[in-house]
Amino acid sequence: MPEKRPAIVLIGFMGAGKTTGARMVAGALRARMVDTDKRIEKHVGMTIPQYFGRHGEASFREVEEHITLEVLDRADGDVVSLGGGTLQSAKVREALRAHIVVLLQVSLPTAWRRAKRSSRPLAKDKGAFEARYHERQATYEAVADVILPEVDRQLLRPAIPVIQSVKEAKGAQLLWAHTDSGGYPVWLRPGLLRDLPPWPLPETSRRIAVTDENVAEHHAGRVPGLAGLIEFPAGEAHKTLATCEAVWGAMIQQGATRSDHVVAIGGGVVGDLAGFVAATFQRGLPVVQVPTTLVAQVDSAYGGKTGVDLPAAKNYVGAYHQPAAVMVDPDALETLPREELAAGYAEVVKTALIAGGALWEQVSSGAPVDPLTVMRCARTKLQVVADDERDGGRRQVLNLGHTIGHAIETVTDYRRYRHGEAVGLGLLAALRLSGQDALRDQVSGLLANAGLPTTMDAAVDVDEVHEATAKDKKRLGSAPVPFVVVREPGDVRFGQQLAAKDVRRAVAELAG
Ligand SMILES: NC(=O)c1ccc[n+]([C@@H]2O[C@H](COP(=O)([O-])OP(=O)(O)OC[C@H]3O[C@@H](n4cnc5c(N)ncnc54)[C@H](O)[C@@H]3O)[C@@H](O)[C@H]2O)c1
After folding, report:
1. Index of the ligand 1 atom closest to the CA of residue 347
2. CATH architecture type of domain 8-164
3. Confidence of residue 392 (pLDDT cuts 50, 70, 90)
C-alpha cells in the first residue's frame, strides 16, 4: 500500500479563522477538508455548547481527543481544522508529528471580537479568555511547523506550495512573511546552514554572495553553491554609496545578470547594503537574506527595508525590496563577539516591548536569548510588517527607541556606538517620554545586565543629539518628528508629537 500523505493541520486559538483557512487550503489543493469540531458534533449528536453544558469540559476533552486521533490516523493528504483546545492532549501532540501543523496567528483583540459573537462556551468571560489565550501560545508555537500571520486568509495562497515542502526542511520552522508586494518564507532552525531547506530560486539562477570580511571568515563558505563572493570591510562606517559602487562593480565583473540573485550573508549592515544593491542592480534582482547577527535575526532581515547611510543622516537612501527568503540559523551567533550579541539584545528588548505577552515575559525575566526568543521576535516583526509594509502607520512602532538612537549614531559618526547600543539608549529616553518610569528602570536593568550602556559618554553633545532627532526621516513636511511611546508592554503607540523641551530633557538624562 502506498504511504499516506501527511495532512495539513490548522491550529490556532478561538477566532483564528481555522475553518475559513482550511476551506481555502483544501480548495486550492483539491483536498478533503475535515473540521474536528463538526465531527465531534456529529458523533455526540448535539452542538458543542450543548455538550459542554450537559457534560462539562473534562468529558468534552475526552471525546475531542478520541475523534481527533481518529481523524489524524485516517488522514491522507487531508486538510484538517483542529479544535482550539485539542493540543492539551499529549496523545494528539504526538500524533501531529506525522503531519504538517500550521498555526494561524490571531491577536487577542481579534480573537475576542470574533469569539464573543459566537456561542463558544469558553468565550463568556473576558479575563478567563485572555488567560487561556496566553496560556496556550507556548504549546501552539512548540508544535507548529508553520506559522502564518494574521491577514485575510485568501492572501496566504502563495504560501501553500511552500507549506507542502516543509517536511523537506528537516525540522526547520517556517514563518510565512506577508506583504502587499508579495510573500516569502522565513526558515528557522539551529543548524539550518548545515542542511538548507528548499532554496526559493531555481538552480539556473546563480547565487552571488555579498558579505563583510568578518562574516566571510566564519560563515560565507557554509552556504553551498555560491557562484561568486563579494566582500566589503565590516562596520556601519562602510554602509555607504561608495561601498555599493564597489559591490555593483564586482557584480559586473562576475557577470551577474537579472536571472541571478544576491545572497546577503551577515548582519544588518550587510543585509541593508546587499539588499539595496540587489534592489538597484539592473533595476532589481532577488535577494535571499542569511542573517548572522542577533540584530539581523530578530529584526533587520525581515520586512524589506534596504539602504545606506549618508554622512548627514542614517538610512537616508534606500528602497523597499522584500527578500525571496530568509534563512535563519541561530547557531551562526556562536561566533558573534559578546558586544555584538549585547547590541542585538537591545532590539530584542524593543521587540518584546512591542509584542508584550509571552515574549515580554520571557525577556523581562532576564532569561538568556535562545532560538525561541529569535522566533518570537521574528513573528512579531513579520506581523507588524504584514499590517503595514511601507511605514504608513503601524510599522512605525518598530521605530521605538530609534529616533534618539539614530540621532546618537549620527552625531558620533556611526563610530562610537553600535546600532543596538544606541537603540538601547534611545529606548530609555523613549520610556521616560512615555511616562513609564518603573518600566524604564526595569529596562535599564536588563540592558545593564547584558553589558549595554545606560548613559552616554560625556563627550556626546546633548544639543547636537537633540537637533539630530529633528532630522529623522520619519518627519513629514514641516511637522516635528513623531515619536513612538509605550503605554505598557504590548501596547505601543506611534505618531506622538512631544514637546521639544521634554525630548531634550530625556536626552540630557542619558548624559548622566
Ligand atoms: N532594515 C531594517 O529593517 C533594519 C532594522 C534594524 C537595524 N538595521 C540596520 O542594521 C545595522 C546593524 O546591524 P548589526 O548590528 O547586525 O551590525 P553589523 O552588520 O555591522 O554586524 C556587527 C559586526 O558583527 C560582525 N559579524 C556579523 N555576523 C557575525 C558572526 N556570525 N560572527 C562573527 N562576527 C559577525 C560583522 O562583521 C560586524 O563587524 C544598522 O545599519 C541598522 O541601521 C536595519
Report:
1. 6
2. 3-Layer(aba) Sandwich (3.40)
3. confident
